[in-house]
Write a structure and sequence with these properties.
The protein contains 5 helices and 6 strands. The chain is α+β, with helices and mostly antiparallel strands. The protein binds a DNA duplex (13 and 13 nucleotides) through helix 3 and helix 4.
Length: 172
DNA sequence: TAAGTGCGTCGTT
DNA sequence: AACGACGCACTTA
């Protein structure tokens, strides 16, 4: 495994039964989470390295939280999150997503209403798609009207799997 | 019922 | 100016 970091982020792998996720850390906290890539498009392997002292507790927490979330349970604790990368509108949406409890769902329209932009339904979809920390910031719990599945930028199979593991019944 | 079309709406690029 | 992880009304089969 090889560590990579661009100017802003340190990237560290998280091994799970569903594959290797990659977490991105800024100086403020967990800033991104990537779904596993299949063998074909996988980039260079990450090599073990010393995790900077201040990152380690975040990474430990992120690992535990991810494993619990993937098992359909509510994480006991989340690492510090850095969502500062988003626009003001996106941050409002992402905060609303964090209010949705495990096993529960909201529609895009309900999120739009919750953040005070009832007509920005479609824009909410865009903000969900831009969520940098899927799974832990549960954008998969947002369904289209009439509990239809809607879309998912990480691949619809993930959305289905995550919802099924939380015992959510959808309508597609 | 199910599937397809058109349009309003609005944040992002 | 164009494009969506939407929602709703409306038309067809």
């Amino acid at each position: 495994m090889k560590t990579r970091h661009n100017s802003q982020f340190l990237e560290l792998p998280i091994e799970t039964a569903d594959g290797r996720f990659v977490a991105h850390y800024s100086e403020k906290g967990l800033a991104g989470l990537e779904f596993p890539r299949d063998a074909k498009e996988r980039r260079a392997e990450l090599e073990p390295c010393e995790v900077p002292e201040h990152i380690r507790p975040w990474h430990d927490a992120a690992k535990q939280a991810l494993l619990q979330a993937l098992a359909g349970q509510e994480p006991k604790a989340l690492p510090r999150l850095d969502m500062s990368g988003g626009t003001e509108f996106q941050q409002r949406v992402w905060n609303a997503l964090r209010q949705i409890g495990p096993g529960k769902t909201r529609s895009y329209a309900e999120i739009a209403e919750a953040i005070g932009n009832p007509k920005a339904v479609r824009a909410v979809g865009g903000a969900c798609g831009a969520n940098p920390i899927p799974v832990l910031v549960p954008c998969h719990r947002v369904l289209a009207a009439h509990r239809k599945l809607g879309g998912f930028s990480g691949g619809l199979h993930w959305k289905r799997a995550l919802l099924e593991r939380e015992a959510v019944k959808m309508d597609d």
